[in-house]
Amino acid sequence: HLQLVESGGGSVQAGGSLRLSCVASGDSLDHYAIGWFRQAPGKEREGITAMYGRGGGLKYADSVKGRFTLSGDRAKNTFYLQMNSLKPEDTGIYYCAVGDVPNFNAIIYDYWGQGTQVTVSS
To answer: How far apart are CA 33 and CA 35, in angstroms?
Structure first.
């Protein structure tokens, strides 16, 4: 049974950067797809990036393309979300997730991190 633990959220000013981490235990991420979602207050959960744990299938939502980077360290069974040029509209709770195929449909993801708050001030 896979477990995910996130870290790295916080508060930054617009234009700043944060890196989120998601450590997996219980199984190898090579067997799965990994993704990051976020949920702003009063809005639905939004998929922002995903890929296969072993690499390949990388996708970004238009809202983060060119600013956010998804990467993984297979030796550490960990994946990361590097967020640059942050904007106030990036504010929300960020969740890592693991499923079968990389896409932005939250329903197909079976395992979720606990969520970490990201706040971007103007």
So the answer is: 7
Q: What CA–CA distances, in Å, run from 85 to 36, 82, 105?
A: 17, 10, 25
What's the Rg (C-alpha) of the chain?
13
Tens digits of residue pLDDT in 63-91? 999 999 999 999 999 999 999 999 999 99
Distance CA 46, CA 56 (A): 21
Phi-psi region of 8 (alpha: psi -120 to 50; beta: other; left: phi over 0): left
CA angle 101–26–112, rounded 5-degree value: 50
